[in-house]
Amino acid sequence: MSDDGKEKIISVCPVCPHHCRLAEGALGRCRARANRNGNVVSVNYGKVTSIALDPIEKKPLAFFLPGSKVLSVGSFGCNLSCPFCQNHDIAQAGEKDIPEVYTVTPEKILSIALDEVASGNIGVAYTYNEALVGYEFVRDTAKLVHENGLKNVLVTNGCCELPVLEKILPYIDAMNIDLKGFRPEIYEKLGGDLETVKNFIRRSTEESLIEITSLIVPGLNDSPEDMEEEAKWIASIDPDIPLHITRYFPRFRYREPATDIRLMHELRSIAEKHLNRVLLGNI
Ligand code: SF4
Questions:
Q1: Is the Cβ–Cβ distance between 80 and 217 less than 8 Å?
Q2: What confidence tens digit (pLDDT) does each residue in 248-258 have?
Q3: Per-residue pLDDT averaged across 6-31, rounded?
Q4: Distance in angstroms (rounded) separating the CA atoms of residues 188 and 186
Q5: Considering the entire predicted model, what is its pTM?
Q6: 133 lines ligand 1 (CB under 6 A)
Q7: What does pLDDT average to over the chain?
Q8: Shortest CA distance to 51 belongs to which of 93, 112, 92?
Q9: Is 146 helix (H, G, I), strand (E, B) or coil?
Q10: Fewest 10 Å CB contacts: which of 42, 80, 97, 227?
Q11: Which domains does the chain have, with CATH numbers?
């Protein structure tokens, strides 16, 4: 009940395991969704904060059209709260925190993507912030992109409920999914849920080409035992799934020194006992 005695209408967001309960007008934890007239909708629809033609290897994707480029588009907001976020200025932010936000339509993104084909562009990547907190724009744009013969790439933390994944999966050709650790406590610290991410990865491999990235953060997820368990689990789905083990550098609120290079090589050796395609990144 609100102060004026009227009953408050709460709507629950179905997109991620936070299931934010939002009163009319309230923003969710990700700052990208809000309760508008009783429906939880994306407030970052068509709001672009970053756009660039990137090498596909930067997503990172090592085994999907290598040597190509992809028009990479990002908005604002994220449902996790990683203290070492590399894109915190747009991911850990709402619209009011960002100096320049451009409003575009899916048709405009398609038109830019088509213009860049001559420069090696293969399609559109939804990246930089967490794309699925605004899955409606991904869905609408990706559908158009496919209808026009281009590819779609999704870069995601995978902390998203399966019914939302089903809405975009038919249009996504390749994904890079973060696996931020292999113990539930790690995800609790970051505001996520390990089982949700595992379910997301399992389902995605059935329809799309996927590669996985684990950023090795000192003091969080850098134990060899965890890597052994993670690699075994990935291999139980498919030992050919590529795993990118990437090196952390101090960012945002996390000040531990960069990941030890010897540890990076040790973790790769452990992962290679179970997986056929293990790559080190940021080395
Ligand atoms: S997507 Fe955003 S609003 Fe929806 S449950 Fe997750 S954090 Fe909350």
A1: no
A2: 999 999 999 99
A3: 92
A4: 5
A5: 0.96
A6: yes
A7: 96
A8: 112
A9: helix
A10: 97
A11: 46-281 (3.20.20.70)
* Residues 72, 89: Cα–Cα separation, whole Å: 17
The finding on whether 19 has its CB within 6 A of some atom of ligand 1 is yes
Alpha helices in the chain (DSSP H): 88-91, 106-115, 135-147, 162-168, 184-190, 194-205, 224-237, 261-272
Banded pLDDT at 5 (limits 50, 70, 90): low
Q: Is 156 helix (H, G, I), strand (E, B) or coil?
A: strand
> Which amino acid, one-letter code, is at 31?
R
CA pair distance 158, 196, nearest whole angstrom: 7
- DSSP strand pairing (174-178 vs 209-216): parallel
Residue 31 main-chain phi, psi, to 5 deg: 65, 10
Pocket test for ligand 1, best of 22, 29, 75, 157 (most atoms within 8 A of CB): 29
Per the DSSP assignment, residues forming a β-bridge with 23 are 10
- Band the pLDDT of 9: cuts 50, 70, 90: confident
- Write the single-letter amino acid at 138: V
Q: Is 177 in the pocket of ligand 1 (CB under 6 A)?
A: no
Residue 77 Cβ inside 6 Å of ligand 1? The answer reads no
Atom of ligand 1 nearest to the CA of 33: 3
Amino acid at 213: T
Mean predicted confidence (pLDDT) in 141-153: 98
CA–chain centroid gap for 187, Å, is 14
CA of 146 from ligand 1 middle (Å) equals 27
Would the CB of 159 count as within 6 Å of ligand 1? no
Band of residue 6 on the pLDDT scale cut at 50, 70, 90: low
Cα of 167 from ligand 1 centre, angstroms: 16
Tokens of 204: 């995605």
